[in-house]
Fold this sequence. Notes:
globular
Amino acid sequence: xxxxxxxxxxxxxxxxxxxxxxxxxxxxxxxxxxxxxxxxxxxxxxxxxxxxxxxxxxxxxxxxxxxxxxxxxxxxxxxxxxxxxxxxxxxxxxxxxxxxxxxxxxxxxxxxxxxxxxxxxxxxxxxxxxxxxxxxxxxxxxxxxxxxxxxxxxxxxxxxxxxxxxxxxxxxxxxxxxxxxxxxxxxxxxxxxxxxxxxxxxxxxxxxxxxxxxxxxxxxxxxxxxxxxxxxxxxxxxxxxxxxxxxxxxxxxxxxxxxxxxxxxxxxxxxxxxxxxxxxxxxxxxxxxxxxxxxxxxxxxxxxxxxxxxxxxxxxxxxxxxxxxxxxxxxxxx
Length: 334
């Protein structure tokens, strides 16, 4: 009886261990990337167990792997929770299971872009657009253009932007994107015309106006004193301060300190507390050796207010000096 009991207990113990026979390799055998992915996956599962909405979404995906809406929502939840790689894996699965889904491919491309992988993101949308050349929406072409630009392929970006504009020619954001792509190719004259078109569609577009200022200021042989007013005319409020400051940055980079000082004076007239303009005052003063006061607009009490802001700025900078590697280059509020 004792012998039979021992045999019975041993057989029970082995059956109890059977589900755990297939174990993951030890951590020391994994590559650093695999270790990170494995740890993030485990953490994501643990986080999901404590999040009711994630548990529900995971249950839906487990029950029906083709539930695209649930998988996309699950990917969004994981990214918000701080697990971008897990989110990307779900988005890749979504694209595999729904190869015709534009929403899934756009979500994957945007996720890769947020992870600073624009070339990989561009490949996703380029492949999708090539297989759906007649059915791709304006958003696919617009995002493909942005990603190609960010990956450094300006020509491919320009082609995608023109495809998007072919579908919706009166969108100022699409015109601005094309102009920016042309600017990246140093085709400033063409970019200038595109930015002007964007401003005709939407005269309030600060982005297009700032880009127009850059295109005009960087044009070979451009008369900056004449072009600058066109680039920032009809501005008012904080937007005007940023526009004039950004133009000042371009002028400083071109070595035109006198015009840069004029633009900074104008920027501070609109917004005396604009940090970028205040910082650029110090930079332009160090570059041309002229006193900081000569850059300030002549208004009663103006210099005292700027001095107070500048002192606060310097105090804050001192606090973070240990972790701030300041190169002394101009700051654009773009």
